[in-house]
Amino acid sequence: MDPADLLETRELRYFLAVAEEMHFGRAAERLGMAQPPLSRAIQQLERRLGVRLLERDRRGVSLTRAGEVLVLEGRAALDAATAAARRTRRAGEAADAAASGRERLVLAVKAAASHELLQKLLAGYAEEPGAAEVEVLPSGLCGQGEMLRDGRADVALMHTPFNSLAGFDSEELMREGQIAILPAGHPLAARTSLSLAEVRDIPGLPLARWSTDGVYPPGPGPEIHDQTQLAHLIALGRTVTVFAESARAWLWSEHAAVPLTDAPPVVTHIVWPAHSRSLALAALVRTATRL
């Protein structure tokens, strides 16, 4: 392999810090190092790759086209390296735990997911011979996929069409309708049903927006970071949202739920990384599909 094609994670961290700060001094401070060795490291990286990554002037730095490519590829590479380290540690911990009879699985769930389904799954699995300990890890509204990819979780409950299952193995568990969740005092709260078009066009009540893989869709509605924030904003009359029918379980008295006539069903899946070879995980999936 050509040495020019090799990149060290240290070099990527240095370069990404400069690219994100757009300033060598601030990047050096962030990395906890002096500026001269940071500048030399970036220059050595450019010489080895044979391309200019940064344009430098008195005001700071800017990315070249080659630099923009390395930002995208470098972030992905560092994320992959971090995930590999986490999965390696977890594999070692799982082997040690299995040897001592203390195996553990981490299950990522949306904070607003159906508690009834989760309770049935945990209770059913606990009755399996040799069942592992299951740690339930609540995530943001669409954060379970990221937790699986970066190694923080072994398995997740995910919901289409809100979550993407691309790159994972999965089994379907249940289907349910959707509801609009509005402020209880809003005129539309008295309706027996609504259409998606009506929910999207309520004057002064924009749809809440949450991220998919860190990206928020465009729109006037507020960016949502967790269920508590969403619940408060609906109660205050600042937003409206669409959720699965089971979300009725966490509604406040200041909320109203109205069924949607034309929304696609929400399908709950149990999801895991395609490369997993965990026997404890396989037993959990069997329990979930049986229930």
Q: What's the layout of helices and strands?
A:
Layout: H1 9-21, H2 24-31, H3 35-49, E1 54-57, E2 60-63, H4 65-99, E3 104-110, H5 115-126, E4 133-139, H6 144-149, E5 155-160, E6 168-176, E7 178-183, H7 196-200, E8 209-210, E9 223-224, H8 227-235, E10 241-244, E11 255-259, E12 266-273, H9 279-290
Parallel strand pairs: 3-4, 3-5, 8-9
Antiparallel strand pairs: 1-2, 5-12, 6-12, 7-10, 7-11
Protein name: LysR family transcriptional regulator
Family: Belongs to the LysR transcriptional regulatory family.
Domain HTH lysR-type: 7-64
Could you list some keywords that capture this structure?
about 290 residues; alpha/beta; Arc Repressor Mutant, subunit A; D-Maltodextrin-Binding Protein, domain 2; 3 domains; three-stranded antiparallel beta sheet; 12 strands; WH-like_DNA-bd_sf; transcription regulation; WH_DNA-bd_sf; DNA-binding; transcription
